Input
Amino acid sequence: MPVQLPASSPQAHVAVAPPRAPESDATRIARLRSLVEAAEQALEAEDETAATDRADEADVLTADWPAELLRNAEVQSLLQRLKEVQDQLAEEEAPEAEPGLKTTGEVVSISGEELRAELERVRAAEQGATYDFPIDLNDKVLTWVSLFTTTKRGFMENALGRASMYMPMIRQVFAEEGVPQDLAYLAVIESGFRNEAKSHAKAVGMWQFIRSTGRIYGLTGNAWIEERRDPVKATRAAARYLKRLYEISGDWYLASSGYNAGPLTLERAIQNIGTRNFWDLARSRWLRTETKNYVPELCAAILVGRNPERYGLRILPLPPYAYETVAVPSMTSLTVLARCAGTDSNTLKVLNPELLRGSTPPGPYMLRVPPGKAGECLRQLARMPAGKRLDFQHYTVRKGDTLAKVARRFRLTPDDLLDANDLTPKQFKPGKRLLVPPPPTLALDDRDLAPKVERVKLLGDRPLEALPVLTPVPTDSEAAAPAEAESRTVAEKPVPPSPSPAAASGLVPAVVAPPRETPARPAETAAEPPAGEPETVPGSMYRARPGDTLAKISRARGVPLGTLMRLNPQAVKALHPGDSVRLPGSPAPAAPARATAPTPASVSGTASTTPRVHVVQKGETLAAIGRKYGLDPKDLKAWNRMKRDRIQAGQRLRLSPR
Output
């Protein structure tokens, strides 16, 4: 029987429920208020687990809210209360070792001769390499390259050794989902490629999904299985989550940061700072140190992970994660299945890490077995009597026992206990001999032990609407323009993070082919035309508003993202409020003149087209206005007799000296 690669296996598909009808803003705010109040009450009652659960559900609820709703006064008040709850929980959380390389403390950047030496080493190691993820080489990234090859060398060698097992599968899944394949090294930071990893925040698996986010992206869990530990299903869920974060932010650095901090936390920081540049956000107080370190760590992990031997790391590669599948008709112990497949139970546990109790769950289940073992396993199962499929211990029901009480004792739901013994509730009575499965290898969430009717009511178990289907592959001429516009190069010169890191000259070419996307959801408010303005139609121009990205405009106008990127190459790098965005069918702008020394006539002609006064729009900053008109913010302050950088919506600013 041929070997099935996991990424192409039909069992790896993550089922997504159809979208629900949209809710009104009043209903959303009411739900947020109830979750915040429940979290506060749980905190007062010293029930930290319940408080954490309610706070997580509130984060999930608000993750996709439009910017205008988030700026609502009542919502801002509720979010502030939520932040206070989360801060208090973080203070009370006992420190535990994280499964990956996420660092919560400040890291002192290398400098001087050490920085120059590290740059030379990276230049030699990365000669000729290309990447599909943007990499900025500055002192922060170089510092992490140095750490990964010195003090954290042992962890990196072990993590990259495990990565060799899963990397072919992860790259295939990421390619299918339209996500940069180099983002596979995000699992180094999250878990060190360990499926059994669990953080103090109760994130589980190689991709460290918390329960609520995992359920949203189709990763189920109960007393028998936890799909956050399934390397195939969790990888596809991670790819879809990263893709959605990119749709929201329009930038892979912001998408990666949102994976760590949550999209709501990142949006709060962007609103307060007034910039969507990660390095600007990293210098602010609005992000945790762990999130500030996240992107530099990821860039360094990609550099070292792609060519570990060039950095002196010794990697012991593991066999690739390959398997065949066997349809197991009913609950069967792994020890029994191992005998049928001619292997050992530990091998089955490695191939099926989502199984928690040493058996398949009640009902049919697709089991992964080593390549070449599926045929023999199926033949052995077909001949096996039903009574010999389980080797569980026995428990005799005593007088006074109830179904719920016995199920709770063995960390099962009543339905699971009945299914495991093929019983009806009426057959549960004193003297009945029950088969009891082994205890779970992972601490179960009480919500996973709730009755099925209650579980489906939980917010965290409700999937979001379906993600967009990938569009057909564009022609070479179509793909070339966005790839060229999106590509960001490794900087030639090691300098501290600057507002425009992508402008540095290239050391290692990072050829980026941005994922193709189609409209996924109703248009965000940020991409709506202002009140009183006519709707734009194909063949016209759209004027960008605060908070707009090409991804948001793409969904709002029903235009493929790749088309917008090809028509607006400058907006791929940075899109500012007031910028004109070409839509399909609009006339092409006049070709720019060749780079020659400006003449007095050309200078005066340019100046005549610049307005004399600018009216500040909501969300604009002095730096953004300066970039828009090519002016120095210091000049703007001098011309307007300003002592501080703070400006207000509606304020009129002079754009030239008096």
